């Protein structure tokens, strides 16, 4: 087993966060009174709306900005955002679905081996930081991809990045370094 051999690692996407604009002012009180699956947070000035399929929670601001969380793919996030915009249209708002953007993707990947974290941190010092008294994982940042990886001694890696492609390439980039420090 060497670092160059092709190893199939399955990357499980657990959360996709996206943002879109409605290009109209939204009356939060009307959404709270007439909408379904809604929680009105008046003190913060936002409405939380939940969809069942796809399973998404949206934070709706009166300015027309909507943040959707909970999707498991970029396609599901877009589908859920469009369904949300449609439900706002049905409440009587002049919603135009614009400026859709995936802003964050969270994924989990399991390595087929355990990792020696102190050795890994020592070998990758400028990018990796390990504070075992504060957090049980190494924090590894890849600036070019804008991705952050949390590497645990069990071999579990949590990846946060701007899109699915960046998350996948971050795992590809980290594999040889992690392979060197395997138990």
UniProtKB/TrEMBL annotation:
Keyword Transcription: yes
GO molecular function: DNA binding
InterPro entries: TBP, TBP-like, TBP_dom_sf
Keyword ATP-binding among record annotations: no
GO CC list: cytoplasm; nucleus
Cell compartments where the protein resides: Cytoplasm; Nucleus
Biological processes, Gene Ontology terms: DNA-templated transcription initiation
Keywords on record: Cytoplasm, DNA-binding, Nucleus, Transcription, Transcription regulation
Entry protein name: TATA box-binding protein-like 1
Pfam families from the UniProt entry: TBP
Coiled-coil regions listed in the entry: none
Originating species: Urocolius indicus
Similarity comment: family membership: Belongs to the TBP family.
Main location per the UniProt record: cytoplasm
